[in-house]
Amino acid sequence: MSFPPSPGQTGRVRNELILKANDVPICAETFGERDDPAILLIMGSSASMDGWPDEFCELLAAEGRFVIRYDHRDTGRSINYPPGEPGYSGGDLVEDALGVLDALGVRRAQIVGMSMGGALAQVIALDHPERVAALTLISTSFVDRERPDLPGMSEENAARFAVPRPDWADRDQVIDYLVELERACAADPATLEDLVRVRVTRTVDRTVDIEAAVTNHPLIDSPPPRGRLEDLDVPTVVIHGLDDPAFPIEHGRALSRAIPAAKLLALEDVGHELPRRSWDLVVPAIAGAP
């Protein structure tokens, strides 16, 4: 379901496009000049393209990049399905990303993925290397195999994510619920930026069915990629918070060791998030890729 915008809600005018990607309607937005090298931003599970803030995208575009962000299925204004009944798989989400590039006439792009988006980015790089100019993996882990040697989420951090589900028909409850999940992701919940609530509010107001957006992605799975990360031949940067509660930093370190010539940017006082205070490091790391 969607809710009417809150009174007095402001913000820049969005230049959203509804593209036919992988034979379904996908909502996307671009920043910068079309002739510049492209960057495709892929957000994580249940997250719309609002997870990549406007200002973050504008900073990348100012570095001479054609920046593309989009809503996954069931998020934002893209195609949606009934809650509990996702009519797609993780493999479809991979094809959606490639379909967005096709719809915009982009042959190759730097693929930047966060969390689940990082898993999708790995599959694209392994199964469709001809489409990938460079790879950036943020707050994610291995997609090509299980790694029982890496630490999982601690009981303390798991408790942070155990936020009671809201009444999905109550807009204020939904916003509060999503803000609490953002707090669970943060290195220090007490310092969560006020703008996070603004972003969450905008996400709720432009999402077709917020219940489906939150509940459907955890139900999907996807086949493993055909290749192995050790054989990946693409410039790669791994960006990971030292205080990530979902994927401890060991995941980022192991990824950077497994991928040939990958570079690791470890962010102090950062969790499973991309706070504004990290952008001075993150933007150059992404824009500096070939």
CATH architectural designation = 3-Layer(aba) Sandwich
CATH topology: Rossmann fold
The outline comes out as globular
Q: Which structural category fits the helices and strands?
A: alpha/beta
Helical content band: 25-40%
Distance between the termini: 41 Å
Number of strands: 8
Q: What profile does the largest beta sheet have? A: 8 strands, mixed
Low-confidence stretches: 4-10
Name the average pLDDT: 93
Question: Could you tell me the radius of gyration in angstroms?
Answer: 18 Å
Number of individual domains: 1
The strands making up the biggest β-sheet line up spatially as 1-2-4-3-5-6-7-8
CATH class: Alpha Beta
For CATH, the homologous superfamily is named as Alpha/Beta hydrolase fold, catalytic domain
Please work out how many helical segments DSSP would assign: 9
How large a portion of the residues is in β-strands, by DSSP E?
15-25%
Helix-strand sequence = EEEHEHEHEHHHHEHEH
Structural write-up:
The structure is a single chain. This protein has about 290 residues and is α/β, with parallel strands linked by helices. It has one domain (about 15-285): Rossmann fold (3-Layer(aba) Sandwich). The chain has helices at about 55-60, 90-105, 115-125, 155-160, 170-185, 195-205, 210-215, 250-260, 280-285; strands at about 15-20, 25-30, 40, 65-70, 110-115, 130-140, 235-240, 265. It has an 8-stranded mixed sheet, with helices on both faces. α5 crosses α6. The protein is globular, with a radius of gyration of 18 Å.
